[in-house]
Amino acid sequence: MQPGLSASANSRTDTAYYSPARDLAATAALAVDHTLYQRYDTVWSQQLLAGGGSYWQKNHAAGAITVLGYGQRLRWNNVVDTGVMLNWDKRPYDGKRENNLAITLDANIRF
């Protein structure tokens, strides 16, 4: 289970980017990890993420948040670990629910 809680307050709302006066988001997601291949220190796995929550913005009604994700990780050895994750979410912005699709690439190198 992956909980999430975020809030913000902005003094300027007349900006070119999304900047609500006040907002609050609370989410919870279930993450599942499945090993596809393992040999000694090398591990190839896939991850599935699904969850939801609620988003509130000042001067707008609260709305639902939906989150889905799929990714794969490759732990090459005890030193190098890499991954890719495709995330989709649907959440309200200024009272209207909008879709967001993102790809995350990451690498961990232990020393």
TrEMBL record:
It comes from Klebsiella pneumoniae. Residues 2-111 form the PgaA membrane beta barrel domain. It comes from the Bacteria. InterPro entries: PgaA_barrel. This is Biofilm formation protein HmsH. It holds the Pfam family PgaA_barrel.
